Amino acid sequence: MKKIIAVLVGATALWAFSLSSELTPEEIIKKVDENMVSENRVTQSSMTIKGKRKNRVLTSKSWTIGSNQSFTEYLSPAREKGTKMLKLKEELWIYSPASDRTMRISGHMMRQSVMGSDLSYEDMMEDRELLEMYTAKLLGQEEIDGRKVFSLELNAKVDDVAYPKRKSWIDAERFVPLKEELFAKSGKLLKRVTMSNVKEVQGRWYPTKMIYKDMLKDGEGTMMEIISIQFNQEIPDYIFTKAALKK
Amino acid sequence: MLALKLAFKNLMAAGLRSWLNAIVLAFAYLLIIFFNGLMDGWNAQGKKQSIGWEFGQGQVWHPEYDPYDPFSLEDAHDLFPEVSASVPVLVRQASIYPSGRMQSVLLKGIPANQNLLELPTHNLVASNTGAIPVIIGERMASNSKLKVGDQLLMRWRDKNGTFDAQDIEIVSIFSTDVQSIDLGHVWIDLERLQGLTGYTNQATYLVSSTELEEGETGGWPHHTLGALLKPLDDLIATKKISSSIMYIILLGLALLAIFDTQVLSIFKRQKEIGTYVALGMTRWEVVRLFTFEGGAISILGAIMAAVIGTPLFYYLAKSGLQLPAASTENSGITIGDVMYPVFGLGLVLGTVVIIVLTSTLVSFWPAKRISKLDPTQALKGKIQ
To answer: Among the listed ranges A110-124, B85-99, B285-299, which one has the minimum average pLDDT value?
Structure first.
């Protein structure tokens, strides 16, 4: 009986894979968008910044609507607890409880690392649909950690993208990226993101562990683990106001 | 004239007391002239350097540009107006990665063939390696541990916000006192920066080689040399005030000593005062004599200060004063490692006049008591 079940499961997986392999590159990234992009989301996560001597772990809770509105509150460690960040379009505000002050971060600072990590503020906020920004080309099929993946090359079709070229390795069954490489206009590799611990949340697959590596910087990178995530929630408007920073 | 002669004679007769007062006053003279000369030297040096390296004879800024506001940099660029004898500069923000560390920099594009500013921009065309040639200041080089020939990565965004990154090569390191064009700055050829960012024929500000008139700036706001140098003037004025506290205290002590000496003289020399009056001097003539005595201490101090100060200040003005590295490093202020004080005639004469006048005033104050003395009683040496 067990053998029959194993054969059936295997056959189903093969059938699913054969079906997905007939998908066009655009259809693949559309499916990725369906998993990764949402109207809004509420996330609790931990960020481990790997240092030369010791690692720093920060936990935070974020409320995000698209790529224009985001509010993050740091929950630990004690030194960062109560620090809040508000992003409204191109503007980023940071509230520091130690000084009880709200500071605006300039456009250039948005590209700097968050709390010394390998993520920039912009990386954290990015939530545009890939299909809207890129044309895709299927490079082939590979295997990452025992899972079949599509290897895709994405080239920007609009001007206002941060990374004009990406390489993505998409899980052929769940349609989530398991690895991404982000390139500069000159072709220089800027960042590598590896994703794992893919879980099903509210009917969509989502990677809950991501390791960001700024390829221009030394260091081992930054690990982001999602503790909980909820999509398409009711988020009150007042959260995305400067007044909410001091509450 | 008699009063003056007598005054100096009495002063010499007082011996050590007079000399001590004169020494303290001479010290006050030297200190006042030294500090003010140092500040004037800094001012002159700072202005000369700022004009040569940064300001030219004035600047014309993009209406959005504010060098003290990083928020303004994003939008402060446009096709620049035709301004004769000017050098355009485009300012963008970028990140460099020296030794695997990320560092934010201001990326400034300036024509490689300019010769208005002292920046060695002629080097910006030379690179055999294919990397983008850039020049930096020695403070920036020291902070980032960079030297000529080093290659490192630079990342920036073009006009659409798209990331780009390429290797840059340090082709020259310049030495300047103007820290505001050195710290955190990377200089690149203007045309190349325009090409890399897509801001063709655009600039953030123009540096002019001549004083511009209204209407010559093509609609962009004009910042005169005076306005550009005002922060330096204000800073030096503040420094002058804060450093004056020290020599005001010293001068105060010296004046207090003169005052005390006068009070003591009048108290001890009652018989002498009585004799002067008995010999036919009016009481006010005696007051004048004692006032001269006090004032003469300041003249004696001035002579002593001149004897010590002339060679000392001449040497300092010629060879300069080496400032400790930590006092000027990374302060962002235009200040050289060696400061050359300027001891102008106005400063020296002004200091002498102020000290002589104040000394005479504090000498007169106790001396005016003499006018109320009864000469008969004074002659008897009776204390009144």
So the answer is: A110-124
Q: Which residues of B are less than 8 Å from A161 in CB distance?
A: 160-162
Mutate one of B158, B163, B167, B199 to test the A interface: name it (highest A CB count within 10 A).
Answer: B163
Chain A positions in Cβ-Cβ contact with residue B163 (cut-off 8 Å): 162-164, 184-185, 190
Element (H or E) spanning A121, and its range? helix A121-125
Radius of gyration of chain A (CA): 19
**Residue range B94-114, pLDDT digits in tens:** 999 998 888 889 999 999 999
pLDDT digits 0-9 by tens, B351-375: 889 888 888 888 888 877 776 777 6
Amino acid of residue A144: I
Whether the CB-CB separation of A38 and A232 falls below 8 Å is answered with yes
**CA nearest to B93, candidates B110, B78, B106:** B106
Q: What Å distances lie between residue B373 and B271, B275, B363, B383, CA to CA?
A: 11, 12, 17, 10
Q: CA of B160: which chain A residue's CA is closest?
A: A160
Domain residue spans in chain B? 2-51+230-379, 58-210
Cα gap B237→B243, rounded to integer Å: 10
Closest by Cβ to B162, choosing from A161, A214, A217:
A161
Are B165 and A107 inside 8 Å of each other by CB? no
Query: Which residues face B105 on adjacent strands?
Result: B94
Q: What residues in B contact A154, CB-CB < 8 Å?
A: none
* pLDDT tens sequence across B307-320: 999 999 999 989 88
Smallest CA–CA distance, residue A86 to chain B, in Å, is 17
Residue A180 to chain B, least CA–CA distance (Å): 16
Please provide the DSSP assignment of B227-267 as one string. HHHHHHHHHHHHHHHHHHHHHHHHHHHHHHHHHHHHHHHHH
Per-residue pLDDT tens digits for B214-235: 777 777 899 999 999 998 889 8
Q: State residue A80's pLDDT score.
A: 86
Q: Does A218 touch chain B (CB under 8 A)?
A: yes
A184/B164 CB distance under 8 A: yes
In this prediction, residue B255 carries a pLDDT of: 84
The interface predicted TM-score of the complex, written ipTM, equals: 0.76
CA angle, corner B221, sides to B218 and B227, nearest 5? 135
Which comes out higher in pLDDT, residue B287 or A197?
Answer: A197
Structure tokens at A166: 């990406």
Q: Domains in chain A and their CATH numbers?
A: 24-245 (2.50.20.10)
* Average pLDDT for chain B: 85
Question: pTM for this one?
Answer: 0.77
Residues 13-72 of A with CB under 8 A from B: none
